[in-house]
Design goal:
By secondary structure, the protein is an alpha+beta fold. 46% of the residues lie in helices and 22% in strands.
């Protein structure tokens, strides 16, 4: 039902419409005077009736475009009404490492970049800020990895545990259904993925 139809059928909508068009500040002086009179009656806890209701209905219908603009703005500013069951977070970046302790380590070089990719499937439990998590914390975690003496498999396994901890520390109500961490050492010819 559109706003004009609602105003034609609902007395409550007329009362609310009067308050809304007056608050918009877009009425000419004549219509503003009438709306102000009706609004004072409504704000006192009364409902318009009789001839006053008829005139107020005509006034709101005359200014239905103001009410349509107000409704459109409320819809645009309202939080989404869709309730997703899950969010899938994807975050990727690069961190730089130096290897130590012989040749049994991630990568083939002593000093190189590693591409990371994190994919987390989580229940839609947003925090007070409206975020699932602060994704910058994931990159900050990887930037702390500087020296490595383990294989890519072990590094990915450790990173999986580290990322999980970062996510849950940032949003303790988060429910993680799936988590993947992929690492690809320069020259990025191979990738190792560890899955929870």
């Amino acid at each position: 039902m559109n706003i004009a139809q609602l105003l034609s059928k609902s007395d409550v909508a007329v009362n609310r419409g009067i308050l809304a068009i007056l608050a918009s500040g877009k009425l000419d002086p004549f219509d503003a005077r009438g709306a102000t009179y009706y609004a004072s009656w409504i704000r006192a806890g009364n409902s318009l009736s009789g001839n006053h209701l008829v005139k107020a209905r005509a006034l709101t219908l005359k200014h239905v475009e103001i009410l349509q603009a107000i409704a459109a703005k409320k819809i645009a500013l309202a939080p989404p009404s869709i309730e997703p069951s899950k969010f899938i977070l994807n975050r990727e970046g690069i961190f730089h490492i130096t290897t130590v302790k012989g040749t049994s380590h991630c990568g083939t070089l002593p000093d190189f970049d590693v591409k990371y990719h994190v994919k987390a499937e989580c229940s839609a439990k947003l925090d007070a800020r409206g975020f699932l998590v602060d994704q910058m914390l994931i990159d900050k975690y990887f930037q702390t990895i500087k020296r490595v003496a383990v294989s890519c498999e072990q590094l990915a396994q450790g990173a999986l545990a580290g990322v999980k901890s970062v996510l849950l520390n940032d949003n303790p109500s988060l429910v993680i259904h799936g988590l993947e961490v992929s690492l690809s050492p320069a020259p990025f010819g191979a990738k190792m993925t560890c899955i929870l």
